[in-house]
Structures are given as structure tokens and as C-alpha cells.
Fold this protein.
Amino acid sequence: MEPLIRLENVSFSYKINEQTKVPVLRDIDFSIYPGEYVAIIGHNGSGKSTLSKHLNGILTPDNGDVWIHGYNTKNVNQKRAIRQTVGTVFQHPDNQIVATIVEEDVAFGLENINIPREEMRQRVDEALDVVKMSPFRHRPPHHLSGGQKQRVAIAGVLAMRPECIVFDEATSMLDSFGRKEVLQVMRKMNDKGMTIITVTHHMSEAAEADRIIVIEGGQIVMDGPAREIFKHKHELEQLQLEVPAVSQMAELIHNRFAEFSKDIIQESEFIEEVVKLSKEEVS
Amino acid sequence: MSSEFEISKRITIGQYVPTGSFIHRLDPRVKVFAFTILVLAIALNTSYIGNTIGLVLSLYLFWVSKIPIRYGLSGIIPAIPFIVILAVLQLLFQGQLFSHGKVYVDYGFILITSESIRLVVVSAVRFVEIIFLSSVLTLATSTTELTHSIQSLLSPLKKIKFPVHEISLITTIAIRFVPTFAIEMEKMMKAQASRGADFGTGGWWRIIQRTKETFPIIIPLFNIALSRAEDLILAMESRCYTPGGERSSYTTYQIAAKDYLALVTGLLFAILLFAYPFPI
Amino acid sequence: MAGRPIIEIENLSHTYMKGTPMEHVALKGANLFVEEGECVAIIGHTGSGKSTLIQHFNGLMRPESGKVLIDGEDLSNKKVNLKTLRQKVGLVFQNPEDQIFEKIIGDDIAYGPFKLGLPLKEVRERVKWAMSVVGLDFEGMIDRQTFALSGGQKRKVALAGILALKPKILVLDEPTAGLDPRSRNELLDNIKRLNKEEKLTVIFVSHNMEEVALLADRVYVMADGTDVLNGTPKEIFTDKEKLQRYHIGTPESVQVLYRLTDLGYEVKTDAFSITEAANEIIKVLACKKECSKHVQRI
């Protein structure tokens, strides 16, 4: 299968002035395939946010290349095609809403790519439906809760019908309910075949993904299935990260009952394991 | 008893009062256009009768739009000192320019004539009318509709390469961020007050001290504004915004019979006020 | 803990923009009592009135109706000295790093103490103390530029700026929002230490139930502008029906235990830490083992 996003030896540094450069990304190399659900984790300052800005050409690498469906992000003429393929939802709900009315904000991207009005209406309706914000379509955004604003932002990206959405710490400013709302939308879209990339430092959120990429000091230090990554509890702790609460619990139980699997990362799995084990014992 | 910091709650820009009245339902372009010509006609009218008509008309519009008149009054009250000072100055110093009327007072450089009194009264009333009219317009039209209509009314200027879209987008974003910044500013004032800051304590003549007192508010707000702007640019770029690019438009307005009716009525009043030779 | 009451709020109400169409009731008949030295969490859904409530603690808002007594002082009295009050009650807003405005760390932390009119030497002592409490190296950091700090460090500076006022009561609104796991744990340790060792009364608003379970002696639940529930974390998080009614989350560990009780397992749901919760489950599994042996014997 052809990768949707391919990074080849990507390096990037921020220039403070002519003499001083701060390297942020070093030799990053990975591919993301259509339909994947990938979490990029790392502590603050590890470079994960800079990395996510390379995924739709907001930033372009100093060295190396980023290919989106065979388009190079350095090619200015293909910017539009690239951004229609990969959409981004940012951290601050307040700073990405442009219009004074919800539905007009959702339409903003469509106006930019010159979609005819009839089709625009239809796409806005659909997008608001997916994130369950249709009842709020005529509201001004500053009356909405954080989770609702973030869902409006998602609708704005969805309406563009991208193949992949990058969530750049999109849940970090939300309360647990807002976070749940957004996570449900992410899961739902991935089930429909959308490629999801989430940048986060919430481990229970990362556990939702199929694959985890761990960034430290601008380099990839781990890349693999979520379950594999969370087996490396000590390495993660050294990287100022942790494993999900259920994994921690599973390990403690495993130490007492070796039959209890310690490779558990999601709550539902954990419950299943408890049920399975207690049944076995009885029989 | 309320707090001294509640700015966000008091902000009145775009204080839309949705009553769903006839005025509310009009095509915003028609509204903006009709209100503009009415304001112009009033501004050029110097007769007592003409301005009485204007005043009655503006009060009537409040009634039609089902908006309580105190909203209009709240726009006038802060302007009263200004109106009074203007009136006094005009009364004292403008007489010489209007010496053709009947002379009431002639004392040194002070000359008060029937014409200068007319000027004073008419100016004050005109002021009130214009505030009333613009209040009705902004109270009965959402900010979104206002920007749309301004964009649409300015669109002929595109031919001379005037950046209509950009200007209207900038306006929309500015309006969109007014409440956000009001909240931010309120929070900042509260946060700094929590660590002992005081605002506006020195008398107004202690300008340096008073300016210094605003630093703990202004500097962080400036930083926040910059970082928000940066975020916003990224978000807009990610959604394919290209300045000057061809864009389609989501909102459209259909002009209906009631809009023509409103337009014609507005025009008639404007012509009446502008051209009719009122006796006084 | 039968300490002296330090915050007493009774029947407090507040309505924003009274008499306009934008009228909005933020508080109606809220009550809150905090004893000296306690650590109290306030939780509740967005819009439940938490922020309005905490802004009454240091006189940013005056009681519209109802009673607010802070350390024995009645805030409805207009003559209350707000400066002294705000020194006594240190209020840390959400994302406090936004309020840093000086170029140098030391200057920013010293802003509050200078505003109190303290002599330079005392200010320096306080800045030193505040920095050590939040875990910033005084010698190494005091002259550093504020803009180059990481998010977690900026938050420490902002917290130190409040602590330098030497408040008796520390009020924090969402203290850990947006921090990564390590910065979060460091900050929580600091808060705990301030409460236990420096004997500050701590009141914090949080959405993170792990934090609430970890830190709080007592929890107030706010909903629709009033306090609907209060008690120890154990009492609050075991009241499943009310938690659902007021849209309150639970710590992850408790959520797992709830799901198990739903399936008919007899686990106690007041285990907040990972270890406690794991032990609960181990107990159940062990019991099953015992029980099944028992069955075999018969």
C-alpha cells in the first residue's frame, strides 16, 4: 500500500537569529498509511508539536522531505492539495474559530477552496451532524463550551473531506467531558476509514490509537503498536511519560496472579481480563 | 453590588437583541443602506420640523423593532456631557456666523440670534436621532449580518482592486475576538489585582504612575494577542486560506417584497428630509 | 479535623448583568465552609459557578446577597481592606503563566511583595522562599528571562509570584491544566507540601478526578450555582448515582471498579490510587480462588 504521509530524514531548526539555530527535529523517518490511528507522544518541548506542523506543510523541513500522497510539502503549488488531504485541529479552541456564527465557521475552509454554495450547505450539514453540533449552528462560538468549540473546529476540517486529520494536542485544554466528546468523534471517524494522527500527552488517549510514535529530543525513540510501546514502562518514565492507569493496575495484578495479562492498555480489555480470569478460577 | 472588573459582561459592541421583529427580518444590506441614507439626510437637515420628523421616526423604529427604548437611551447618556459642552460652545461662539437671524443677545463677542439657537437645538436633536438610528441598526442586526452587508455593498469596489473580501474578513475576525479579549482582559485585571496591583488610583495628573499601572495588564494582553494571532494564522492556512484568492460565499440574502417596501420608505423619508423646504 | 473556620460562605447568590436580556444566574444560595489547614477541592461541570464562587474569596467579587466571611472578616462590609485580603488569600487563576509581564523571573515574582510596600531585603527573602517552595533554583534562575521558559516552569514562576505574598489561603483554578505528566506531578507535590508542611489552607478547582482524590481532604460538588454535595473523596466518589446526576467523572481506577460492580463483582469503589484499586481486584480474584477450592472440597 502506498503511504499517505511519508517523512524522509526530516530535520528542522528554529532560527533565533542569523547565528543561533535551535534544532528541534532530527532525522525523522516514518510513514503513515491510509486508515491508521496513530498517536505521537512526548513531553512538552520534545518536538512533537513541531513535527505535527510538518504533516500538512505549515512548516517545511530544513533537510529531508515530507510527501503527502506523492506531493512534496516544499512545493508551493501543491499546498492547497496537501491541506485538503491533511487537515489539522489545534490546541486552543478559541484561536481557530474565524467566524462569528458556528455554521459560517464550518464553511470557512469551503469558501477558501471555492466550493459552490449548494454543495457547501450540504457539506456543512453533514459535518455538523457527525460532530453532533447541528443544534448549535446559528450560535456565536463564544457561548459554547471548550468541547463544543473543539467539535466545531473538527467540523470545519471534516467539511473539507480530508483523508487524514491531525489533532495537535486538541484535547489538552478540555475537561474530562469535553475530552470524551472529542475522543468519541475521533474513534467514529477512524472507524469510517479516516486516518487519525493525535499528538497528546494523555496516555489513556494514546492507548486508543493502534500505533504510537514516541518523540524525545526531536528524534523518534519508539515506534510500534500501542501495546508494544506500553510494555516499556521504565523507558517511558525516563522520557517523562507514563503508561495508562489500567496498564499500571494490570501489572500489579499480574505480579500476584501470573495468569493475569500485564499487556493491557484499554479499560474494556482490563474488564474482560478480570471477567475471564475469575470465571476460569471458578470452573 | 457588583465587581469593578466585569468588563466582558458590559461590552456593548454588537449588542444584538433578537426580538425577531420586522426590522430584524429585513435583508441586512437593505437595512444598512436605508439607515445610511437616513442618517445622511438627517445630518444635512437644519429645520425644526424636519428634525422633529426624524426624531419621531427614530422612536417609531424602536417601537417597530420591539427593542426597549432604554437601550437607545443608554447610548445617549454617556454622550450628554459632550452634547451640553458642544451646545454651550456653539451658543457662545457661533453667533457671528449666523448673524442674519433675529438678535437676542449682543454682548461683546457673544452674539445670540434665532439662527444660532436653531443651530444649537438642531445639532443636539440630530445627535440624539443619529444615536437612536444607529442603535436600532446595531441592536436589530447581528454583527455577522452587518459585515456581510458591508462586504456586499462595497463589492463594486472590487473592480478598482479594493480588497473587499480581505477587509470584510478582517472586520469579522476583529468582531469575533472582541468578546474573547474582553474576557481575557477581565481575567488579567483580576489576576494582577490578586497579586496586589491597583488600577487608576493616582489622580489623572499623575500620568506616569497611571501608565505604569497598566503595564501588568497591557504587556500580557499583548503577548496573548500575538500568540492568538499566530495560532489563528496557522488555523486559517491549514484550512486553505490564501489572501487574495478566489473565494465562494456561504451566506446569501434574498431580497423580498418587504425589503423593497423598507427601502422605498427609507428613501422617501430621506428625500423628504433632504429636499423639502420646511418653513421653520 | 476540628480546626478554626477560615472561609464561611452562606447562601451566596450572584447574577451577572441583572435586568438585561443577557441576565445569567451564576450562583444561587451557595454554601462553603473551610477549616484552617484543610485542602478542599471544588468540582463541577463547566458553568456550575465554580469560578464565580472562588472570586468571592479575595474580594474580586463582593457578595450580592448572602454571607462571605474570610478569616472572620465580613466581605459585605465595604470598608474591608482589599489589599490585606488579597495578600491573605492568594488566588491563582487558570493558566497563570499568562500574567507574567516582567522580563526577568525575579522581578515578576517580586511584583506582589513590592506592591505590599515591603523593604527590598524582605522582598528578596520572600522571592527566595517562594522559588524554593515551587522547586526553582534561586541562584540559577532569578536572573533568567521569563519568555524562554517552558510551560511548566512558567507556571512555577506564576505560582511563586502568588506565594511571595505569603498568603494564609491558597486558591487555585485548574492548577495542572495543559501540563505534561511530569510537570503535573511536580506541581501536585508542591501543592501537597504547601498544605501539609507550610500549613497553608488550600482550595482548588479541578476537572481531574485523580488529582482531587489524591490531594483533597474534602470535596465540594457544584451544580447550577449551588453546592449540591460535600464530603471526603471517599464519600463523594462512592455515590455513583449522584456522580452521574451532576455529570462528574471519577478517577480512572474508580471507573474500572464501577464497571466491575455493574458486572456483579463485590469490589469496594473507594479505592482511588492505582495500588488500592489493584488490591481490590486481587482480593476478588483471590476470593474466587478460595471459594472455588471450597466448592471442590465439598
